[in-house]
From TrEMBL, chain B:
<dbReference type="InterPro" id="IPR003439">
    <property type="entry name" value="ABC_transporter-like_ATP-bd"/>
</dbReference>
<dbReference type="InterPro" id="IPR005670">
    <property type="entry name" value="PstB-like"/>
</dbReference>
<keyword id="KW-0547">Nucleotide-binding</keyword>
<keyword id="KW-0813">Transport</keyword>
<dbReference type="GO" id="GO:0016020">
    <property type="term" value="C:membrane"/>
</dbReference>
<dbReference type="InterPro" id="IPR017871">
    <property type="entry name" value="ABC_transporter-like_CS"/>
</dbReference>
<dbReference type="GO" id="GO:0005524">
    <property type="term" value="F:ATP binding"/>
</dbReference>
<protein>
    <submittedName>
        <fullName>Phosphate ABC transporter ATP-binding protein</fullName>
    </submittedName>
</protein>
<dbReference type="InterPro" id="IPR027417">
    <property type="entry name" value="P-loop_NTPase"/>
</dbReference>
<dbReference type="Pfam" id="PF00005">
    <property type="entry name" value="ABC_tran"/>
</dbReference>
<keyword id="KW-0067">ATP-binding</keyword>
<dbReference type="GO" id="GO:0035435">
    <property type="term" value="P:phosphate ion transmembrane transport"/>
</dbReference>
<keyword id="KW-0592">Phosphate transport</keyword>
<dbReference type="GO" id="GO:0005315">
    <property type="term" value="F:phosphate transmembrane transporter activity"/>
</dbReference>
<dbReference type="InterPro" id="IPR003593">
    <property type="entry name" value="AAA+_ATPase"/>
</dbReference>
<dbReference type="GO" id="GO:0016887">
    <property type="term" value="F:ATP hydrolysis activity"/>
</dbReference>
C-alpha cells in the first residue's frame, strides 16, 4: 500500500484523542442526568406517598391552613394544610423581588450607563463578591440587626415576613443587579448611538432604547432572583419566626416551605406521615423551581425571537 | 449656492493623536458631497464632528470653528439635541432598533412629544416612501424591523432620520454592507432626496462617489487634499495624490 493511503486509513492520534474526549464528556453528562432523575424519583416517591399511602387529600393539602401533622382531625385525617407555608414562601419571594427590582435596575443603569468606568472597575466586582456570601451570614445579620429593628418599629417579636423579605432583598439584590448589568451591557452600542443621533437625550436613550431592548434579560434576572429567594432556607428560617400559621400581617411569626423543611426534617422518622408530608413540601419546592426555570427559558426564547 | 455647513481650521485629537489636521471646507445646501480617502484618513471622524457624535468619546479635543447656517455648533449655548435633529446620521451597519418598523420610524417624533396617531401614521408613510422602502414594508409595519433584509433595514434607518426632518443627512458608508441592488436603490433614493436635504456621504466606492455626488472631497492622513466638483475631480484632478488614489496606485 502506498504511504499516503496508509496514513489516511490509519486513525491519527488526534482522532483518537477526539474520540476519548467525546466518551469522557458523554459519561459526565450521563452521570448528571442520572443524578437529576434519581433526585426527582426520590423526592416524588416520598412526596407522593402522603397522598397515596397516607390518603391525604391533595386539595386539602394545598388549601387548608392548619399545619399539625401529628394531630388528627374529626375525620381521622392528619391536619396537614400547607397553605400557610405556601403563602409565606410566595409572600417573601414576591415582596423581596418587588423591593429589589428598582434598586437592582437603578444600580445596573448607574454602572453601565452613567458611570461605566467606576461601575465596571469597582461596583461590578463588589456586587459579584456579594453574590458569593454564604446565606448563613445574611441570616445572622438579619437576626442581629433586622429583627431588633423591626421589633423596635412595629413591636411584637420582630420575626416575620417583613424581616424575611428584608433579608432576602439584600440577598438577591447582588444577583439581580449583576445579571441586569449583563443584560444592559449586551445592548449593542450602536442602538445607543442611533438614538442619540436622532436627538434623544441620554436619559431618553436609556429608558426608550436600552431598557426596552434589555427587558427580557432584566426579567430573567428578576426571575432568577425570585428562584433564589423561593429556595433560600437558612437565612429565612433564622428571621421568619417559624410558626406554621397563616400570616395575617407582615410582622407576626410565619414560615415558608423551606423553613418548615429545615426545621422538621431531622426530627421525624423516615416513612412516617410526619416525614412524608415534609417530602411533599420538598416536591412542591422542586416543582416551583422547575416553573421558575421554564419561565426563564420562556423569557429568553421570547427575547431571542425579537433579534 | 448656499453654504449649509462650514468648517474652519478644524483640528481633532483623540487623546494626543491628531486625527483631523486643520480642515477648512464648506458644504453646499441641496447637494451631495462625497468624502473619500483611504482607511484611517479621518472621514468618519470629520462626519461625526458635524453632529457632535464625537462628544461621546472620552478625551476628544476639537479646535477650530464649525458652523451650521452660520451658527457655531460648538458654542457653549448650542443645544446638542436640537443640533442632532437638524443634522441626522445614517451609520455603516444598518442599526434599526429591535422594535417594529413603525416604532423605529416614529422614534424621533415620539421623542419630540408627538402623540397624535394620524400625524405619526402620516409621517411613517411619507418617510418610508421617501426612503423607497414603503412597498416592501407597508404590510409588516408592526413586525420587528430586524426581520427585514440588510438593505431594507438600512432604508428604514434612513426613513427614521427623514421622519425627524433634518436639514442635513450624514451617511457613513451606508451601502458598504449591502449588495449591489440594495446599494443602487439607496443611490437613486439619495438623488431624489437632495432637492430637500443636504447630503454628506462617506464612501469607499469611487464609482458611487462619481455617480451620485456633486462635489468630492479627498482626504489623506487627516488633511483635505482636494475638494472640487466631482466631474472635475475624477476626470482632471489637480493634485498628484488625487490622481494616484483614483487610479488605484495606493490606498
Ligand atoms: N475612538 C477613537 N479613539 C482613538 N482613535 C480613533 C478613534 N476613532 C478613530 N481613531 C483614529 O482616527 C483616525 C481616523 O479614523 P476614522 O475612523 O475617521 O477613519 P476613516 O477615514 O473613517 O476610516 P475608514 O475608511 O476605515 O472608516 C484613525 O487613525 C483612527 O485610528
Ligand atoms: Mg469610517
Amino acid at each position: 500500500m502506498d504511504p499516503i493511503r496508509e496514513s489516511l486509513l490509519k486513525k491519527s492520534r488526534q482522532s483518537k484523542v477526539e474520540r476519548l474526549g467525546k466518551l469522557v464528556s458523554f459519561c459526565c453528562i450521563t452521570l448528571i442526568v442520572l443524578i437529576v432523575l434519581a433526585i426527582f424519583y426520590f423526592v416524588a416517591s416520598r412526596g407522593l406517598a402522603t397522598f397515596f399511602h397516607d390518603k391525604v387529600n391533595l386539595i386539602d393539602f394545598l388549601t387548608k391552613d392548619v399545619w399539625n401533622p401529628s394531630v388528627k382531625d374529626a375525620r381521622g385525617l392528619p391536619e396537614v394544610g400547607a397553605l400557610p407555608m405556601i403563602v409565606g414562601s410566595f409572600l417573601v419571594t414576591i415582596l423581596s423581588a418587588l423591593v429589589a427590582t428598582p434598586f437592582a435596575v437603578g444600580g445596573a443603569i448607574f454602572m453601565t450607563e452613567i458611570s461605566p468606568r467606576r461601575g465596571m472597575q469597582i461596583l461590578k466586582p463588589v456586587t459579584e463578591l456579594l453574590v458569593g456570601i454564604p446565606s448563613v451570614v445574611y441570616g445572622f445579620i438579619g437576626l442581629s440587626v433586622v429583627v431588633p429593628f423591626v421589633r423596635g418599629i412595629f413591636g411584637g417579636t420582630g420575626f416575620g415576613i417583613l424581616a424575611g423579605t428584608f433579608v432576602l432583598f439584600v440577598m438577591i439584590l447582588p444577583t439581580v443587579t449583576s445579571m441586569s448589568v449583563d443584560a444592559l451591557q449586551a445592548v449593542p452600542r450602536y442602538y445607543r448611538e442611533a438614538s442619540l443621533a436622532l436627538g434623544a437625550t441620554r436619559w431618553q436613550t436609556i429608558y426608550k432604547v436600552v431598557l426596552r431592548s434589555a427587558t427580557p434579560g432584566i426579567l430573567t434576572a428578576i426571575v432568577f432572583g425570585m428562584a433564589r429567594a423561593f429556595g433560600e432556607a437558612l437565612a429565612v428560617q433564622m428571621v421568619i419566626g417559624n410558626a406554621a400559621l397563616m400570616p395575617h400581617n407582615l410582622v407576626s411569626p410565619a414560615s415558608t416551605l423551606t423553613s418548615v423543611l429545615t426545621m422538621g426534617i431531622g426530627n421525624t422518622i423516615m416513612g412516617s406521615l410526619q416525614n412524608n408530608v415534609l417530602w411533599s413540601l420538598a416536591l412542591l419546592l422542586l416543582l416551583m423551581s422547575l416553573v421558575f426555570n421554564l419561565l426563564i427559558r420562556f423569557i429568553g426564547r421570547k427575547g431571542a425571537l425579537k433579534k | 449656492m448656499a453654504t449649509i455647513i462650514e468648517t474652519n481650521d478644524t483640528h481633532l485629537y483623540y487623546g494626543k493623536k491628531e486625527a483631523l489636521k486643520g480642515i477648512s471646507m464648506a458644504f453646499t445646501a441641496n447637494e451631495i458631497t462625497a468624502l473619500i480617502g483611504p482607511s484611517g484618513c479621518g472621514k468618519s471622524t470629520l462626519l461625526r464632528t458635524l453632529n457632535r457624535m464625537n462628544d461621546l468619546i472620552p478625551n476628544v479635543t476639537i479646535t477650530g470653528k464649525i458652523t451650521l447656517n452660520g451658527q457655531d455648533i460648538y458654542a457653549p449655548e448650542m443645544d446638542i439635541v436640537e443640533l442632532r435633529k437638524e443634522v441626522g446620521m445614517v451609520f455603516q451597519q444598518p442599526n434599526p432598533f429591535p422594535f417594529s418598523v413603525y416604532d423605529n420610524v416614529v422614534y424621533g417624533l415620539r421623542l419630540a412629544g408627538i402623540r397624535d396617531k394620524r400625524q405619526l401614521d402620516e409621517a411613517v408613510e411619507t418617510s418610508l416612501k421617501a426612503a423607497s422602502v414603503w412597498e416592501e414594508t407597508k404590510d409588516v409595519l408592526h413586525q420587528s424591523a430586524l426581520a427585514l433584509s440588510g438593505g431594507q433595514q438600512q432604508r428604514v434607518c434612513i426613513a427614521r432620520v427623514l421622519a425627524v426632518k433634518p436639514d442635513v443627512i450624514l451617511l457613513d458608508e451606508p451601502t458598504s454592507a449591502l449588495d449591489p441592488i440594495s446599494s443602487s436603490k439607496i443611490e437613486t433614493m439619495l438623488l431624489t432626496l437632495k432637492k430637500d436635504y443636504s447630503i454628506i456621504l462617506v464612501t469607499h466606492n469611487m464609482q458611487q462617489a462619481g455617480r451620485i455626488s456633486d462635489r468630492t472631497a479627498f482626504f489623506l492622513d487627516g488633511r483635505l487634499v482636494e475638494y472640487t466638483n466631482t466631474t472635475k475631480f475624477f476626470t482632471n484632478p489637480s493634485k498628484q495624490e488625487s490622481e494616484d488614489y483614483i487610479s488605484g496606485r495606493f490606498g
